[in-house]
Amino acid sequence: MLQNIRVVLVNTSHPGNIGGAARAMKNMGLSRLVLVQPLDFPAADARARASGADDVLDAAVVVETLEQALAGCSLAIGTSARERSIPWPLLDPRECAGKAVERAAGGEEIALVFGREHAGLTNDELQRCHFHVHIPSNPDFSSLNLAAAVQVLAYEVRMAWLAVQGEPSKAVKDDACELATLDEMERFYDHLEQTLVGIGFLDPEKPKHLMARLRRLYGRSSVERTEMSILRGILTETQKVARGEPHKKKD
């Protein structure tokens, strides 16, 4: 699916930005880079900034016109940093990624088009795109570096792709990091309440929402099963001390 999405850079003036864009692409699983009349490419600066994404640079296609870059695409989305005189369907990065991945999943060719560092895409170039995408950056400092703009959209594309694939966006935890279940948490809260009453910290006649606040505290913490075992062990030993039982030191 991701192989159906190409990144198009138009008339890039600094080769370092091409390398930075290639790195951003590879980070997020994109591999198809098309360059429209780059001022300086190939170049050592591009390879240096790619930081290992040499395969993306080596496979980059250089063309003379945007029309050539968009050949075979059924959807083109152009980046725009400012309002244009001609209104155009506008997407935010997340909407852009969702639409791109949805269409790419059906086998269509998709292009994400980025303009020049100093001026972006011309009105004529933007009108070759079906949609415009605007990254809602700080209006007081809205100009994004080209590679940074590629990174934003590439990240959103990857998140949309993960959602479509049914894959988690976070690293899958192993068994040792499995979270405690709700019923295990309930047994912990009962144990905690009994312990707090036993040591005189909680007056069951005047609880003052203490347990509710502790539930909220632990509920925010995503307690793991191994951590739950530690907590329950602490409570058990605390209860023994409160009852005056001899304390057995751990080896």
From TrEMBL:
Keywords: Cytoplasm, Methyltransferase, S-adenosyl-L-methionine, Transferase, tRNA processing. Its EC number is 2.1.1.200. SUPFAM superfamilies: alpha/beta knot. GO terms for biological process: tRNA nucleoside ribose methylation. GO terms for molecular function: RNA binding; tRNA (cytidine(32)-2'-O)-methyltransferase activity; tRNA (cytidine(32)/uridine(32)-2'-O)-methyltransferase activity. Its main location: cytoplasm. InterPro entries: Alpha/beta_knot_MTases, RNA_MeTrfase_TrmJ/LasT, SpoU_MeTrfase, tRNA_m1G_MTases_N. It catalyses: cytidine(32) in tRNA + S-adenosyl-L-methionine = 2'-O-methylcytidine(32) in tRNA + S-adenosyl-L-homocysteine + H(+); uridine(32) in tRNA + S-adenosyl-L-methionine = 2'-O-methyluridine(32) in tRNA + S-adenosyl-L-homocysteine + H(+). It is found in: Cytoplasm. The keyword tRNA processing applies. Residues 5-155 form the tRNA/rRNA methyltransferase SpoU type domain. One of its GO terms (cellular component) is cytosol. Coiled coil: none annotated. Homodimer. Belongs to the class IV-like SAM-binding methyltransferase superfamily. RNA methyltransferase TrmH family. Catalyzes the formation of 2'O-methylated cytidine (Cm32) or 2'O-methylated uridine (Um32) at position 32 in tRNA. This is tRNA (cytidine/uridine-2'-O-)-methyltransferase TrmJ. The lineage of its organism: Bacteria, Pseudomonadati, Pseudomonadota, Gammaproteobacteria, Pseudomonadales.
